[in-house]
Design brief:
The protein is built from 7 helices and 9 strands; from the N terminus they run ββαβαβααβββαααββ. It has 211 residues and is an alpha/beta fold. β8 (205-206) and β9 (209-210) form a beta hairpin.
């Protein structure tokens, strides 16, 4: 019997990146909030769900997997939050915060310690990235494989809940969770998640070498 590829899906949310991966893999998802983890489980009942700290789970379990996807929290890096710090008169309307360096901790850790394939995803930030990423579909990606271009979905990231449910492919109407629109906005487009996994498992040939 062929061994299943073992995938670790960190900061899983409701599973936007995972939606089109199918069920032929052995997938472990880590999500901090129980109510969100419960929604993920409804959509992907065959996955193992861990409710806990994804950053710590990565450190303790990274060598158990073949492919790791990580989407660390993005608000402290985002252009939107940075722009919202000051009003038109230059007054502070939102307290400035340090960028969360767990993002770069994970990139450096995976690059040097992990022997499998990895993808770290985050928003396009308000500052020059400290480690150069690839940019696809309004996201930054740090990987150890090459990603070909991806045509981003042209529909607005800031649409209504109903539109976002249609775009992302999740019906959340039966769930009573706070900030539902933000939950949907935080989903990576499923087509992009599929695109990335495909090229992780089918690396591009460059000058005769497999990357």
């Amino acid at each position: 019997m062929e061994k299943k590829l073992k995938i670790l899906n960190l900061y899983a949310g409701i599973g936007g990146n995972r939606k089109l991966w199918g069920d032929e893999y052995d997938i472990t998802a880590v999500e901090y909030k129980q109510d969100i983890a419960d929604i993920y489980h409804d959509f992907f009942p065959n996955d193992k769900i861990v409710v806990g700290d994804a950053h710590q789970y990565l450190l303790e379990h990274f060598n158990e997997f073949d492919f790791i996807w990580s989407s660390p929290p993005c608000p402290t890096h985002s252009q939107v939050r940075f722009i919202a710090t000051y009003d038109k008169k230059g007054n502070i309307r939102q307290k400035p915060v340090f960028p969360d360096m767990k993002l770069y901790e994970e990139i450096i850790f995976l690059k040097h310690y992990f022997r499998g394939l990895y993808c770290v995803e985050n928003v396009v930030g308000y500052y020059e990235p400290l480690i150069k990423p690839q940019e696809l579909g309004r996201h930054y990606f740090w990987t150890n494989f090459v990603l070909p271009p991806f045509r981003a979905n042209s529909r607005s990231h800031y649409d209504s809940i109903e539109k976002l449910e249609d775009v992302k492919g999740f019906d959340l109407s039966k769930y009573d969770v706070p900030r539902k629109r933000l939950l949907l906005r935080n989903c990576v487009f499923p087509e992009l998640g599929k695109h990335i996994l495909h090229y992780a498992l089918n690396p591009i040939k460059i000058q005769g070498d497999l990357l």
